[in-house]
């Protein structure tokens, strides 16, 4: 058994105090890593099913090879890691607002170690995903003006439950339409939500994209074995054969 509780890092940030902790969880007989922003619990390596599903479902809806992917929100890295397991993926740009999170990956102190930092296909970009989504040059300064095959977003708890109010405009038709300009024809936008599917947000996506749908992600809570329902929203741009951009 390891240390019962250890705070691995604590950093003030522009949106609150960020902390990374590791604790021994006797109910699971393992170490658990958790990230908190102030008093708010952001993520844990116990609950990664839907983060992985975000990449798997979105890339499963994309055709082609030599795929370029953007991941909005680095976190513990499970979405980006899942994207890299698709052999068609040639490049993953991960956009993260908080420099300490990128530093944790470079130091290798998270459960996946420094995997993302040592994969030559990966670029870790410190920046505001929501600001870059509406910028003409796109998400990655090393590859400006590039169209992507998939844009995967896991930052806010849901389109209605935001970590910071600055992202509110993104979830409106205008914000989504600006982001969609960075997708190639037939490209897919994937969004993680901590909530069950919302018809209202699916309708917002359909007002921007010719195809949009919600995929429930259902799994068991390992602590009490209750059922958890989260959501991956998917939306696809028109293909070239149907007059897409």
Report on the architecture of this protein.
With 245 residues, the chain is α/β, with parallel strands linked by helices. The chain has one domain (47-242): Rossmann fold (3-Layer(aba) Sandwich), CATH 3.40.50.150. The chain is 22% helix and 36% strand. The protein is built from 7 helices and 11 strands. It has a 7-stranded mixed sheet, with helices on both faces. Helix 1 packs parallel to helix 2 (78-84). The protein is globular and about 60 Å long. It starts with a strand and ends in a 9-residue tail after the last strand.
Q: What's the topology here?
A:
Blueprint: E1 5-13, E2 16-25, E3 30-37, E4 40-44, H1 49-60, E5 67-72, H2 78-84, E6 89-96, H3 99-107, H4 115-118, E7 122-126, H5 129-133, E8 148-153, H6 173-180, E9 183-193, H7 199-206, E10 211-220, E11 227-236
Parallel strand pairs: 5-6, 5-8, 6-7, 8-9
Antiparallel strand pairs: 1-2, 2-3, 3-4, 9-11, 10-11
